[in-house]
Each structure stands twice: as C-alpha cells, then as structure tokens.
User: Which sequence fits this backbone?
C-alpha cells in the first residue's frame, strides 16, 4: 500500500473575481521510503501541490479530486506525520523565540514530552542536522544564524516528531550554491536513515536527479511527464521535459546518480 | 479612484457622512440660529425634549442648548482643521530640512523635535495659552505646538529614503539649489505618509481644544462644546444633560474623523492588495 | 543584559541636551507673558507701587531674562526649582508633595489600560475578522473618541450622583482619621472613577493596537511555518502571534506617558485630585510662571525616565535589538 495516493487533484483560487486554476488532473503515488521530486518553473503549480498534500492551502481554495493516506486511519497530522520545510529559512522561524524552543515545541506538541525532555530532544536533533555546539545553539536566536544554519534548524523542527513524509518546498533555492549542496546531502542522509518518504519540490532538475527515484514534471498546473529518474532524464518523452533537461544539461549527472532506495 | 473605494468601506462611508453633516451644521449655524448663542433665549433650566422651541433645553441663564451645540461645531471644526494644517506644515518643513540637510542641522532639529515630544502636549498648550491669552488663533497655535513633531519625524524618514533616488541626483547635477530640490522635488513625494497622519491629528485637536475650553482657556467670546460642559458642571446634580449633550457632539465628531481615517487606510490598503 | 546597559548609557547622554532645550524653551515662553506673578499677586492681595517693587526685587523678578535663566539653571543643578508666588512655598516641595498622588493615578491607569487592553486585544486578534473581533474593534473606536474629562463627568453622574456607590472627588475622605488598610481602601474607592476616566481611553488604544498588530503577524510566513509544524492553536496565538505583536505596544507605552500626563491635568481637575496635573491648572489660574515651568520640567524628566524604562523593557523582549550583524 502506498503512503500517499493522489488522484485527479484539481486546485483553484479566486483572484480578482476570476477563478484561477493552479493544478488540474494530478495523479501521484508515493510509497513508504520513496523519494519523489516535483519539477517545474514558477507558476507550474508545484508549490500548490506540496501545500495541497500537506493541507496548508488557504481556506478559500477549491480542491477537487482525492488525496488519500491508506496507512493513516484518521488522516495524517501535520507536524507529526508530515514534515514541511519552506523555501525562505529566515521567514520560517519566529524572530523572538530561541531556536531551541522552536524545535522543542514540536516535540512537545506531538511526542507528549515535558519541556526538559523536549529541549534535550531538540539538542539531539540539532546535532542530527550537523549543527555545531547544539547545547548553546538551543539558546540562540534566529537572527544570530546564517541562512544555511537556519534551514538546518527548520529541517530539525520538521523531522522532530519523526514524520513518515518530508515535504521540502524549494528548500535550497534561497541559499548559496555551496550551502545548497550541504542541505541536499543532509536531506538525503536523513531520509535514507529514517526510512522517510520525500517529496522534493524544486525548479532545479539537477538537484532533483541527485535525490529522487521518480520525477514528476509540471507545467502550468498540468502533469507533463512522470517516471523513474533515469528514464525521464535520459529519454524524456515530453518536449517540455526535453527542454528542461537540455537547459540544465551537465555531463556530471548523466552518469547514474547515487542509488537511493 | 480612491474616493470611490473609500465610500465602499463601511468605515469610510460612515465617517464621510458624519463629517459632511458636521460641516453642514457648521456652515448653516448662522442661518439656523442667527441670534448670538450666548444670548438668553428662553426660560432657564428647561429640560431637553420638553419644548419644541428649545429641543435640547436651556441652561442656567436660559441660553438655548441646541444653538450652543450647533455653533460650537464651528469652533471645533475650524480650530481642529487649522491646527492640523499648521502642525503638518511645520512638521513637513522641519522634517524635510532635517532629512535633507543632514549632519549638524539634522541633529539640532531632531533634538528640538525630541524636546517638543518630551513635554506633554497639553501642558505645552496650557503654558502657551496662559502666556498669549485665550483666543482662537492662540488655541490653534497651542495645539499645533504639540502636534508638529509626529509629522516632522515621518517627513524626515521619508526624505531620508527619497533623497538617494535618481531624480534627486539628476536635479543636483543640473545645478538646482539644494533648498529648491528639498522643497520642490522631495517634499511633495514625502507628503503621503504625513497626510496619513492627518485624521489622527485632527481628532486630537478637537479633543485638545475641548479640554482647553473646559478649563476656561478657550476663546471667551465663543460658545464651544468644552465650555458648555464646564458650565454644566456647576449644576451636575440637577441638570446633568447640560454637560452630557455637548459631550455626545464631541464623541460623534471625533468618531466621524476616525472612521474617515480608517476608511482612507482601508481604501489605500485595498489598492495595495490588488497591485 | 549588556545590550540594555549600553542602550541606557546612550539614551541618558541624549536626554541632557533635550532637557536643556526644554528648560530654555519653556523659560523663554513664560518670559513672554505679559505681567508676572507679582502682578497677579497684587491684583488679588492688593498693594501699592512701592510694595510691588520690593516684592519684585525680593523674588528676583527685576533682573534681565538672561541673568534669570542663568540663575535658574544654576539653581536647578542644586535641585532648587524656585519659589511659588501663589502658594508662598518652594516649588520643589509643592511638586514632591503632589507627585505621589499623580503617580498613583497614572500608574494604576497605565496598568489597567495596558493589562486589560492587551488581553482584550488578544481575544479580538485571536480570530481576525470574527464577530468578536469586529465588535471589540467598533467598541474600542467609540471609546477612543470619548474626551476623558467628559467621561469622568458621566461616570460621576452615574456612580456618584445616581447610584451613590463612589465618592465624587478628592483622594480620600478628609479628616476621617483613617489609617493603614482602612485608609488604603478609602483612597482606592476615591481612585476608581478617576482611574477609569483616565485609563479607558488608553485601554481602547492598546486594544486596537494589539488586534491590528496580531492581524499583521498572522499573515507572516513564520506563523504559516509554525502551523505546518502542528503547533496547537493556543500556543500559536499566545506564544507566537501575541508575543510578536506585543513589541510595538511596549514602545507605545513610552510614547503615551506624555499624553497621559497631559490627560491627568483635566482628570485631576474634574475629580479634584491633588496631583501635579491639578497643580498645573492652579498655576495657570494664578499666573504663577515659575511653578508652571517647574511642573513642565518635572514632567519632561518623568517622560524621559518612563521612555528609558520602556526602551530597556523592549530591549529585553526583542532579541534583535542591539545585536551585531549576523554572520553571512
């Protein structure tokens, strides 16, 4: 049984007295422990797809189709079963609370820990995301950290309750290229070790190829192509995919990407 | 058009209606009640809603309350608008000078602004009126003295951000005199945020004028809502309506100004949302 | 803590020139007054030209303005605020005597308005656009439009005259001989209406600021992120949204202290409370320029002190204040 099954998903908003369709006819299955990438340019609807799956769409959005979670009897709880990492690390952390509290509060909310335990758990998580000196970092404030460090904190908070699915929405796009690589390998390492499923949303086909087993290509809210990474990259069937692949053409990843389970 | 959007918000509509009614009353006062409102019009201490000739009753000396309320609107409106205009002009000029000149001039002007903001505005007004004597012009100046620092700070902040822009550099290149640049190029663009403060200043001015009148520091030759409330204080036990009615007029006027201001903010925010 | 102390030192330095400007400015202003305290004294008490000249000389009012300003500044540095002609007492004693009452009035009014206003603002701001929010918003707007002195009189009519629950004025029952808890309760009873009249308007202000602030914060990305982490609504409202919205309110506390001092003038007059607000009104009535000057000066000092305290509090609440540039 897949972890997540999406069929016929359609999402529309009302903007300026008109109905704008952000997504239509999306079908997607994610198995346990599988890494799937959703690729598209701005306006392709990839962020909308991520948020629809997470249940983060604004209340005035019209959603049609089916999103089912066969393994969850009452549906997944956001924060506990699904972890979400946003694009802008500076905007995803509360500026007046310590980094430690923001990670610990997730543990407290979902794992029923008391504050003392939750902070200890937070320190472990900060170490898990390769941040230096977790004990003193607990008392640091977001403005004292760099962009890459903030994103690692955001990841720590996202995985704090041990979710089955990690969704990252352009999680590296706001970071420098060198930092990007570090975050990508961190995500890959965590997801592999914990057996999480990953939904990696990005515009960067090269990054997607590094992480994902399967790739979905979106354009203007429609699903243009879907399939195993090697197949999509090496022999794209849709002209749009071919265009994307050629634009990001780089011999380095035409060789087989590191096998992910 | 911003005015069309303004009317569509409930606050803007209510505020505009109230203000229009107030303005109409103020203009019509000499026609509705041609006699001096301070003159005796009927029997003393007639309660409200008892006599059609004096719908809101009369005071201790037999002066008509409704005439007082209607004439009082002229003072409140005139003083508050004049004071707000004066405060915003002074503030805009000083703020522009400070922001544009920078350096020592800026420091000095800002310290002066600090000083005016540190002294409670009402105490300053008290001191000024007690020095210059109670008259309409003095009251306007007294209120403006306390209200100009706000607009000055906003104008200065705007100027600081505008003066680095390209069209200012261009003016410098063609050799425009700095003062001309400051007041012809920069000030007009710095105005909108200052004007956004206007409704708050007008409302505050109405209340300050009323408080000054209440303490006996308003123009003694005019009837004002504040002086009516003070008059009624001596017979608060037996005739509370004399103090209560003018207060309602005050509340309505100030509420109208606030609602209008809120409507303006909503209308310009809506514009930004669709942008 | 260190940030706060650095801030304190910087602000104290800035306060000195401001105070100097206040003193010089007010002195010059009151110089322009036609006639001085001696004239007022003579009008009320009577006296011939010779007596008036003597009094002038005695009170140093016959010297040039520049000399008097210099003398005044020198005296100030020794803590001497001058002599009140109308009360025939040192101004410093007069002010110190009346100051505690005003502190009590303003302190209670501030605590009430800030505490209750913030609370109600959180209730309104927890669900922006809800019926609760809109009702509180409209009610607070109406309250904010009410003149304090009129509100005071309405409260007197209702609670002192009609219902006879509370006294009409003063700070305590005169010559009652009460002491200890009894006296405290008596003073408290007398303070209820003046505090309400002074505080309600600011309550409305803080309510509106809190709800507007919270509406702003709800739109921010880090709140969406906290929601995505499944944080409970209660914690979201209190620990994230309200906590962030509190910051501008704290700044407002400082800014409103000057306004409240001004408001206390009329409120103390309406309720016959013997504080420095009332003293200012009495000074104006008896044309006692030195007294008015002294009150203005003390008020300025008070406002500076309150603003300093508020800035310290703000620095403690907002970790970003005074921080060094974050590493890239």
Assistant:
């Amino acid at each position: 049984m897949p972890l997540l099954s999406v069929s016929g998903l359609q999402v529309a908003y009302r903007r300026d007295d008109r109905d704008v369709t952000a997504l239509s006819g999306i079908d997607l299955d994610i198995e346990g422990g599988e890494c799937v990438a959703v690729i598209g340019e701005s306006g392709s609807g990839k962020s909308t797809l991520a948020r629809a799956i997470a249940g983060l769409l604004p209340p005035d959005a019209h959603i049609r189709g089916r999103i089912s979670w066969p393994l969850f009897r009452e549906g997944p709880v956001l924060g506990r079963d699904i972890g979400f990492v946003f694009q802008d690390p500076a905007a995803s952390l509360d500026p007046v609370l310590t980094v430690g509290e923001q990670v610990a509060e997730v543990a407290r909310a979902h794992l029923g820990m008391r504050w003392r335990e939750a902070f200890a758990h937070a320190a472990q998580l900060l170490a898990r995301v390769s941040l230096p000196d977790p004990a003193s970092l607990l008392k640091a404030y977001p403005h004292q950290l760099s962009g890459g460090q903030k994103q690692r904190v955001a990841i720590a908070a996202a995985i704090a309750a041990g979710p089955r699915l990690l969704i990252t929405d352009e999680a590296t796009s706001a970071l420098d290229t060198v930092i990007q690589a570090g975050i990508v390998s961190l995500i890959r390492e965590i997801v592999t070790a914990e057996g999480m499923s990953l939904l990696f949303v990005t515009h960067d086909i090269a990054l997607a190829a590094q992480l994902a087993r399967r790739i979905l290509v979106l354009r203007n809210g429609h699903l243009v192509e879907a399939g195993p990474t090697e197949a999509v990259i090496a022999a794209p069937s849709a002209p749009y995919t071919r265009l994307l692949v050629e634009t990001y053409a780089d011999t380095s990843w035409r060789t087989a990407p590191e096998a992910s389970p | 058009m911003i005015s069309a959007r303004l009317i569509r918000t409930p606050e803007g509509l209510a505020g505009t209606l109230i203000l229009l009614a107030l303005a109409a009353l103020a203009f019509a006062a000499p026609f509705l009640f041609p006699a001096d409102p301070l003159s005796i019009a009927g029997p003393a201490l007639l309660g409200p809603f008892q006599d059609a000739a004096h719908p809101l009753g009369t005071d201790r000396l037999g002066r008509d309350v409704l005439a007082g309320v209607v004439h009082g609107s002229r003072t409140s409106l005139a003083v508050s608008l004049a004071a707000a205009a004066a405060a915003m002009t002074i503030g805009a000029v000083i703020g522009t000078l400070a922001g544009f000149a920078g350096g020592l001039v800026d420091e000095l002007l800002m310290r002066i602004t600090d000083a005016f903001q540190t002294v409670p505005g009402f105490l300053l007004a008290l001191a000024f009126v007690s020095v210059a004597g109670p008259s309409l012009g003095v009251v306007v100046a007294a209120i403006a003295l306390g209200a100009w620092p706000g607009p000055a700070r906003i104008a200065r902040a705007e100027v600081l951000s505008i003066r680095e822009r390209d069209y200012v550099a261009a003016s410098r290149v063609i050799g425009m005199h700095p003062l001309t640049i400051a007041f012809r190029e920069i000030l007009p663009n710095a105005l909108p945020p200052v004007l956004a403060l206007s409704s708050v200043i007008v409302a505050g001015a109405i209340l300050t004028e009323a408080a000054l009148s209440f303490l006996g520091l308003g123009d003694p030759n005019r009837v004002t809502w504040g002086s009516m409330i003070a008059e009624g204080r001596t017979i608060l036990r037996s005739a509370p309506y004399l103090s209560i009615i003018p207060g309602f007029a005050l509340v309505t006027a100030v509420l109208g100004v606030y609602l209008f201001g809120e409507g303006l903010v909503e209308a310009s925010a809506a514009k930004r949302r669709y942008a | 803590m260190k940030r706060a102390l650095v801030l304190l030192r910087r602000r104290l330095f800035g306060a000195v020139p401001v105070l100097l400007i206040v003193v010089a400015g007010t002195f010059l202003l009151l110089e322009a007054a036609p006639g001085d305290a001696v004239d007022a004294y003579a009008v009320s008490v009577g006296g011939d030209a010779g007596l008036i000249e003597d009094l002038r000389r005695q009170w140093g009012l016959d010297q040039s303005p520049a000399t008097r300003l210099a003398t005044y500044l020198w005296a100030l540095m020794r803590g001497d605020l001058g002599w009140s002609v109308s009360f025939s007492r040192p101004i410093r004693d007069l002010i110190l005597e009346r100051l505690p009452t005003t502190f009590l009035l303003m302190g209670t009014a501030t605590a009430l308005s800030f505490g209750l206003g913030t609370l109600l603002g959180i209730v309104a701001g927890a669900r922006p656009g809800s019926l609760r929010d809109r009702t509180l918003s409209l009610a607070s707007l109406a309250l904010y439009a009410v003149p304090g002195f009129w509100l005071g009189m309405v409260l007197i009519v209702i609670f002192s005259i009609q219902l006879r629950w509370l006294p009409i004025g003063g700070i305590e029952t005169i010559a009652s001989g009460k002491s200890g808890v009894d006296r405290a309760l008596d003073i408290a009873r007398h303070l209820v209406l003046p505090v309400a009249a002074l505080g309600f308007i600011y309550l409305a202000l803080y309510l509106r600021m809190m709800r507007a602030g919270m509406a702003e914060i709800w739109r921010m990305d880090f709140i969406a992120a906290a929601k995505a982490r499944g944080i409970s609504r209660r914690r979201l409202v209190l620990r994230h949204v309200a906590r962030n919205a509190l910051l501008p309110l704290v700044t407002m506390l400082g800014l409103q202290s000057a306004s409240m001092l001004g408001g206390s003038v009329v409120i103390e007059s309406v309720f016959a409370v013997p504080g420095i607000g009332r003293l200012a009104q009495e000074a104006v009535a008896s044309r006692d320029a030195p007294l008015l000057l002294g009150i203005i000066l003390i008020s300025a000092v008070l406002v500076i002190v309150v603003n300093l305290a508020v800035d310290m509090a703000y620095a403690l609440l907002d970790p970003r204040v005074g921080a060094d540039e974050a590493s890239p």
The interface with chain C takes residues 111-112, 114-115, 117-124, 126-133, 203, 207, 210-211, 214-217, 229, 233, 236-237, 240, 243-244, 247, 250-251, 254-255, 258-259, 262 of chain B (CB under 8 Å). The radius of gyration of chain B is 22 Å.
